[in-house]
TrEMBL record, chains A, B:
Annotated residues for binding of substrate: E202
Region (Disordered): 226-248
Start and end residues of each Aminomethyltransferase C-terminal domain: 288-366
Pfam families (alphabetical): GCV_T (PF01571), GCV_T_C (PF08669)
InterPro entries: GcvT/YgfZ/DmdA, GcvT/YgfZ_C, GcvT_C, GCVT_N, TrmE/GcvT-like
Entry protein name: Glycine cleavage system protein T
Amino acid sequence: MFSILPSARLRPSPFFDAVQAEGLSTGSIYNRMILPGSFGAPEAEYWRLINRVSMWDVGVERQVQISGPDAARLAQILSPRDLSKCKIGQGKYIPMCNHAGVLINDPILLKLAEDKFWFSIADSDVWLWARSIAGERGLDVDISEPDVSPLAVQGPLAEDVIASIFGDWVRSVKYFWFRETEIEGIPVAVQRSGWSKQGGFEIYLRDGTKGDQLWNIIKEAGAPYGIGPGSPSTPERTESGLVSVGGDTDEQTNPFEVRLGQYVDLDVPDDTIGIHALRRIAKEGPKRHQLGLKLEGDVPAPLGFSREKIFHNGRLIGDMTNCVWSYRMSQNIGYALIDRTVAAGETVEIMRASGSVSAELVELPFL
Amino acid sequence: MFSILPSARLRPSPFFDAVQAEGLSTGSIYNRMILPGSFGAPEAEYWRLINRVSMWDVGVERQVQISGPDAARLAQILSPRDLSKCKIGQGKYIPMCNHAGVLINDPILLKLAEDKFWFSIADSDVWLWARSIAGERGLDVDISEPDVSPLAVQGPLAEDVIASIFGDWVRSVKYFWFRETEIEGIPVAVQRSGWSKQGGFEIYLRDGTKGDQLWNIIKEAGAPYGIGPGSPSTPERTESGLVSVGGDTDEQTNPFEVRLGQYVDLDVPDDTIGIHALRRIAKEGPKRHQLGLKLEGDVPAPLGFSREKIFHNGRLIGDMTNCVWSYRMSQNIGYALIDRTVAAGETVEIMRASGSVSAELVELPFL
């Protein structure tokens, strides 16, 4: 595959020098930033996440900061999840929808103060969206991008590593809660979160000049635990049933179709964007659902850049939105976004570049 | 530099198979699509654009289609350029701004019918933006992405190539005007446009299954003229003074700062987004301006992923937003976005990774 051309249109994170020194070999672009991929040994990187601890430059999870007198109101307007009980120091996973109830992002919201929030975003321009709504509704808010860059530490030993750096208080931090603190003079926020199901933390660096320093603090503290560089893992996140908005979703996908209905509160205020559409969809039932796919064959055959069509008894029922070799299951697995009338247990045919491949539909997560 | 990882989150254009067959070696991601870069011989690709004719997969210029009863009204709301005299078949270059007058995109608008427009966009989520405004204002429009993918043919011989395919009528097409037609049964729109100053056309493919076929039609027709694969050229666009929104601009940049004031009509309707801010900026004068930089030294030293700081008499005055070796000028050239009090003719210092480098400020374009 082709290599990436540098440009000021794209931005490296404060950890990029450290990541390059680790031997970055593949990557992607996400929110117009560099998302590291592999460091040359994808399978070893996978097992490190599953069995030990891995550290990831996830600076691509850019922060949209909303502050000012109307900040709490705008945060709720943008979120079809009830924020009324959200406390300072708490985070929440938010499906963000447009007026039609279509998913446009799924940030983690962090409440830093009664009038200050961060949205730690997936890959779309939430700045444009939030500024548009604020401008149209005449809200008194400031929307900016603070100097904040997350670094994820993930895996069963992640808590031990983070506790060895910050202290044992981190062991009692609840999921998505965070604390603002510092380490060796570097201001950070420490949150229990991360895009894997192996457990861990995200350290939000609050001084972009200290990326190398923070990277090395974690690398050194993690050495006794076998830490090494990695990145959000497609095999692990697929096995674990995590959703990638923009990858697993299309221009019509609502939260109910991709197992995110539990994060939608239908009784949020009527001025919440998309809530009228979401109430209607909840009542009528979504037309599609997301299931797992176990593909026949014993040779790794990951998805390329394009979704692949799924057929059931000769009828087109939807798309395979990702596909990857599962090291733990020793088979190719993927996600189906398909007609809700076709259920788990059925066998389907996927039109791949190599020809038609059979697959079994299963409930998610796989593991 | 690292190589790109395939993912369904990113999308290839219909020309991607053909582009890969041509030997794509570098590229980028733009609007979550693959933007081809070089085919292994950057200098030869540059001279082909300057002296002959080059063909580019610019499917990344994704189309935001706005149709319906309020389409014309929404198009004007989104555009601080007067569209009242825009005719069907005409295109216009549009600086698109947010409520604060900050540039968020600079599409080419194509008027296909009184109630149907395409915005052929630069790298930001104009879908989110347009849908947000339509939703907030309750406009009766449909906003979608049509099956349309531009392919650019650029260079002094481009008109001859396009005329040999479509007929001599193309020679009388005015800049940014277009005609809907077909070639060998493939529906296309042919527009005089393209992101270079070497002249040429963009062919908007309207059937994504025919990418290979259209690529090969142009490749074969262009063979006698010396056509070959290329991509939007950083050296050429810099020499020619073209702006890359997102690369040459930041979160505060308004059109007046980057020589786009001529495309802002201050008497557009009051409900046009950003017009109040733009009128104020026009009255007060912008705080920064964009000038060219001629750097000392005779070794190519392109910009990497980060802007570089510019100093004048020891004072920080702004950023170098791009820098590239000019094959025609035999020196490194770039753009400065700096304090308006420092003018062309002055000498500045740029803080580069290699150390401080002197440069002369000049008016744009270079050539």
